[in-house]
TrEMBL record:
<feature type="transmembrane region" description="Helical">
    <location>
        <begin position="168"/>
        <end position="187"/>
    </location>
</feature>
<feature type="transmembrane region" description="Helical">
    <location>
        <begin position="58"/>
        <end position="78"/>
    </location>
</feature>
<feature type="transmembrane region" description="Helical">
    <location>
        <begin position="199"/>
        <end position="221"/>
    </location>
</feature>
<feature type="transmembrane region" description="Helical">
    <location>
        <begin position="140"/>
        <end position="162"/>
    </location>
</feature>
<dbReference type="InterPro" id="IPR036259">
    <property type="entry name" value="MFS_trans_sf"/>
</dbReference>
<feature type="transmembrane region" description="Helical">
    <location>
        <begin position="227"/>
        <end position="249"/>
    </location>
</feature>
<feature type="transmembrane region" description="Helical">
    <location>
        <begin position="85"/>
        <end position="101"/>
    </location>
</feature>
<keyword id="KW-0812">Transmembrane</keyword>
<feature type="transmembrane region" description="Helical">
    <location>
        <begin position="333"/>
        <end position="351"/>
    </location>
</feature>
<feature type="transmembrane region" description="Helical">
    <location>
        <begin position="363"/>
        <end position="386"/>
    </location>
</feature>
<feature type="transmembrane region" description="Helical">
    <location>
        <begin position="107"/>
        <end position="128"/>
    </location>
</feature>
<dbReference type="GO" id="GO:0022857">
    <property type="term" value="F:transmembrane transporter activity"/>
</dbReference>
<feature type="transmembrane region" description="Helical">
    <location>
        <begin position="430"/>
        <end position="451"/>
    </location>
</feature>
<dbReference type="InterPro" id="IPR011701">
    <property type="entry name" value="MFS"/>
</dbReference>
<feature type="transmembrane region" description="Helical">
    <location>
        <begin position="300"/>
        <end position="321"/>
    </location>
</feature>
<dbReference type="GO" id="GO:0005886">
    <property type="term" value="C:plasma membrane"/>
</dbReference>
<protein>
    <submittedName>
        <fullName>MFS transporter</fullName>
    </submittedName>
</protein>
Length: 456
């Protein structure tokens, strides 16, 4: 870690980076490892595409909604305490998921797991921004980004091995070791929590956000089955929109909002989050569709379906920290523009997939191009968003950005049946590839139009 981050970091600062990586690793790994297990889950528990969507989105609903609340709690009561809460909750809910006998309990436990995960990412990244200052901060964030994003992308490989060789249930226990290691390392950390006195946590706002997102997602997922005219769809959609509007209205009035809307008055913060919305929607769609189609459509076993994304992981580990360093020196705008456009090309290459499936000729080129673009994008994007906000609000700034990325995935997975035409066959796979490419390109354009580099 000393070589990767830089010789000038102290031992305690290196420990901070390791803790931040492990804590975020737990959430990111679980969010992606499940994709390759979805076919096995639906075979054993039933429910088809709808069950698969809910297994993903139940986690994302609570993760997205409560991450904002967790950011405020992190700033108010301390990053280390909040991280401990998240780690313990994540471990317990993982055990329940592994033992779930039916889809209902599995989905409910996934929602609890998402709530626990919401307390991990903002507090872990805020530890870095608090303990490490520029110019080392950009490189530290680059290392954090490389390993946590690699976890998100390497998840399908680990999940595939577990599904093929053991059981999909054990997929959800992969995080036991990193959770235990992180809890132990926290005891070795000399830094202590700094709490902001007098801060009130907006629990009502958190509830409005969670219920609003949950109702809207229910309507989008169930709409292909029930139809727009069904009261079971129309009522949750309207109620969700009203609750979320009430949440935004409250954030303009409450003394300590969980979503400080004034942050969006900062140009780079606003533009970075718009780019995040497009880019992470594309990543979520791509990860879900590739993981499921390669098994159900191309007939690959789960392990080989997981191996499909390995080139992306390798390129992220090799290039992401370097991209973060160069972006800190040259500015982030060019990287945030070029990276998503390269990823758009990678997504478009999936249109070469045919019924006579050939991974090397049809999928591998896409993964290489996608991984290169992703390595160019993620570290500069994170540095742009967090670097635009003062360090005292790093917890909530990180929470907002991570919530935006999760909401992006939440919405696009909820719309999956509409995107693929109800079936994830070859035609649906191609439709998803087109939508993915468009979303990536929109992220690059948003970055070019919105982000501004600071004067040298």
């Amino acid at each position: 870690m000393a070589d990767a981050v830089g010789e000038r970091l102290t031992a305690q600062q290196r420990l901070v980076v390791v803790i931040a990586i492990l804590a975020s690793f737990v959430s990111f790994l679980d969010g992606s490892v499940v994709n390759v297990a979805l076919p096995a889950i639906s075979r054993e528990l039933g429910g088809g595409l709808t069950t698969q969507q809910w297994v993903v989105d139940a986690y994302l609903v609570t993760l997205s909604a409560l991450m904002l609340l967790a950011g405020s709690v992190s700033d108010a009561f301390g990053r280390i305490l909040v991280m401990r809460w998240g780690l313990v909750g994540f471990g317990v809910s993982s055990l329940v998921i592994a033992a779930a006998p039916d889809p209902a309990l599995l989905v409910a436990a996934r929602a609890v797991q998402g709530a626990a995960g919401a307390f991990l990412v903002p507090s872990s990244l805020a530890l870095i921004t608090t303990a490490i200052r520029p110019p080392l901060q950009a490189r530290a964030i680059g290392v954090w980004t490389a390993w946590t994003t690699a976890a998100m992308i390497a998840g399908p490989l680990l999940g595939g091995l577990f599904v093929d060789l053991l059981s999909w249930r054990l997929v959800f226990l992969i995080n036991v070791l990193p959770i235990g290691a992180t809890l132990w390392l926290l005891t070795r950390l000399e830094a202590r929590d700094v709490r902001r006195p007098g801060v009130r946590v907006d629990l009502v706002g958190g509830a409005l956000c969670a219920l609003g997102l949950g109702a809207g997602v229910f309507a989008l997922i169930e709409q292909p089955r029930l139809g727009w005219s069904s009261p079971a769809i129309a009522v949750p959609l309207v109620v969700g929109a009203v609750l979320f509007a009430a949440f935004l209205f409250r954030q303009r009035r409450v003394r300590d909002p969980i979503l400080p809307l004034e942050l969006f008055a900062v140009r780079n913060f606003s533009a970075g989050n718009i780019a995040t919305l497009f880019i992470y929607a594309a990543l979520a769609l791509n990860g879900f569709v590739v993981g499921v189609y390669l098994q159900q459509g191309a007939g690959l076993p789960a392990t080989l379906a997981g191996l499909a994304s390995l080139p992306v992981t390798i390129l992220m580990i090799l290039l992401s920290a370097r991209a973060g360093t160069l972006a800190g020196r040259w500015g982030t705008r060019g990287f945030m523009t070029a990276g998503p456009l390269v990823m758009a090309v990678g997504a478009a290459l999936l249109l070469t997939v045919r019924d006579d499936f050939d991974y090397v000729g049809q999928v591998l080129p896409s993964m290489v191009v996608l991984g290169t673009g992703l390595a160019l994008t993620v570290s500069p994007l994170t540095a742009t968003v967090l670097g635009s906000i003062d360090s005292e609000r790093s917890g909530i700034a990180s929470a907002v950005n991570n919530a935006v990325s999760r909401v992006a995935g939440l919405i696009v997975i909820a719309l999956l049946a509409t995107i693929v035409g109800g079936r994830l066959d070859l035609a649906g796979f191609h439709s998803a590839a087109v939508v993915t490419a468009v979303l990536f390109a929109a992220g690059g354009v948003a970055s070019w139009l919105g982000v501004r580099d600071a004067p040298a």
